[in-house]
Amino acid sequence: MRRSFNDPGWLDARLTLEVPSEAADGQGGATRDWVSVAGLWGAVHPVSVRPGEEAAVANATLTHRVTIRARDDVLRGMRFSWRGRVLAIEAVSDPDESGAYLDCMCREMAP
What we know:
This protein is mainly beta. The chain has one domain (13-109): Bacteriophage SPP1 head-tail adaptor protein (Thrombin, subunit H), CATH 2.40.10. Helix content is 0%, strand content 65%. A hairpin with a 7-residue loop joins strand 5 (85-93) and strand 6 (101-109). The N and C termini lie far apart (33 Å). It comes from Pseudohoeflea suaedae. This is Head-tail adaptor protein.
């Protein structure tokens, strides 16, 4: 899929890229916290909503495709913060193999 994005304003979502950081909790375990790595501009597109149920409570899984300029440090397991929402990165790909952009398939998480 060849893309040609000439409009400089198409990346209109301000995102924060975050990585997990684990610290010892003093009792033999660890606590996970999130550390901001970078502020990025991107485009967020909703992909799907899948209704479900967990522990007899109705819920839904929302997925989004987040497109950003290519970076070497974006990996599965990181997340984006966007407008008070948390988007967990589940897959990263170069949509047209040009090295210009990355598509990140994300699942929306509770903040």
